[in-house]
Amino acid sequence: MEASFLIAKLITLVLSLAIAYLAYHGYRRSGQKPMLYVSSGFVFIGAGAICEGLIYQLFGTTIASAALVQAVIVSSGMVLVLISLTK
Predict the structure, then answer these.
(1) How far is the C-alpha of 25 from the C-alpha of 40, rounded, in Å?
(2) Do 38 and 22 form a contact (C-beta atoms < 8 A)?
(3) How far apart are CA 63 and CA 67, in angstroms?
(4) Which helix (H) or strand (E) element contains residue 5?
(5) With b meaning 16 or more CB within 10 Å and e meaning fewer, what string describes 25-47?
(6) How do residues 13-26 score in pLDDT, each as one tens digit?
(7) Burial (CB count <10 Å: 0-12, 13-18, 19+), residue 13
(8) pLDDT tens string 23-48
């Protein structure tokens, strides 16, 4: 796997987990349920950021099937963020 690609994926993971942590901390302080949805959503988004490459490398699947799994995970995170914005 190319180093620049790996670094970009790791930066995305770290940033999404930092946002998730801050949102969870906000939930603990305020008790606002939407912040918990934001936190969970960004965990899914961060996991989706790295899962495509891992699935492709570890399980030897096609890039299309690995991308499909990534899209489902990231979309789930986006749905959670959307739910938090509508409540």
Answers:
(1) 12
(2) no
(3) 6
(4) helix 3-30
(5) ebbeeeeeebbbbbbbbbbbbbb
(6) 999 999 999 999 99
(7) middle
(8) 999 999 999 999 999 999 999 999 99
Task: Residue 48: name the closest of 81, 78, 26 by CA.
Answer: 78
DSSP single-letter state for residue 23: H
What is residue 31's three-state secondary structure?
A: coil
With tokens 């906000």, the residue in question is 26
For residues 4-12, give the mean pLDDT.
89
Helix (H, G, I), strand (E, B) or coil at 32: coil
Token pair in block for residue 79: 């749905």
DSSP string over 40-82: HHHHHHHHHHHHHHHHHHHH---HHHHHHHHHHHHHHHHHHHH
Element at 17 (helix H, strand E):
helix 3-30
Question: In which residue are the tokens 């305020």 written?
Answer: 30
